[in-house]
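Internal tracking record. Fields below are filled automatically when a chain is submitted to the structure queue. Please do not edit lines marked as system-generated. If the sequence contains nonstandard residues, flag them in the REMARKS field before resubmitting.
Queue: standard
Priority: normal
Entity type: single polypeptide chain
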Amino acid sequence: MSREMGATLPWCGFNVHVAKGMLVEAAAKAYAAVGEVIPSDVPGLTALGVRQPVGGVVVGIAPWNAPLILGVRSIVWPLVWGNAVVLKSSEQTPLTQAAIVQVLHDAGVPAGAVNLISNAPEDGPSVVEALIAHRAVTRVNFTGSSRVGRIIGELGGRHLTRVVLELGGKAFPGAPRSRPGGGRRRGRFRCLHEPGRAAAFSPAWGAAWPADARETEAPQRLDRELEEFFRSV
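SYSTEM-GENERATED OUTPUT FOLLOWS
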């Protein structure tokens, strides 16, 4: 993760910590799948609601900015409820998100239950459309930009594939000053989703850090900013 996206060790450790917690929680939820009795208006009839797999493959499309957290979250919940899953990794962090699949395989997940697709940036649109259009895919979970989310939503509607979208572009640029600097510190780090470009942004720099600037002073500046962020939370 540090090599691929220039992440600092605190951010890498936080990703591992949260992703591990998700896996533990999901494992516990596997034993909590219970049905319910549904009120019936027919005398003498008992109606039951029973949880079942959705009957198809669930695709998770995760971004690069929190690759372990968002990668695990996109597939672990449908997996624990009995669905086969496909993780389409970010073009910026394919090795990091491939590690998620490898860990699950090493843990003994049945063959074919967890799958990985990686692609070059220029192939992203065709790969995503092929996944959504495939007759075996019944659900798509996408986290990313509003622009791409709108396209995925339209493709889902066209192919009658249900989609769950968590999109960017929803954060108000100004933070309320409930206490001096508090909201602004929490909102300090934003992720920019631009075609063919990955960047981490901090208002303190006044500019974006392109992916090709990882070998400059940007990682050191990000390290100082991130440590200040963790101290303020």
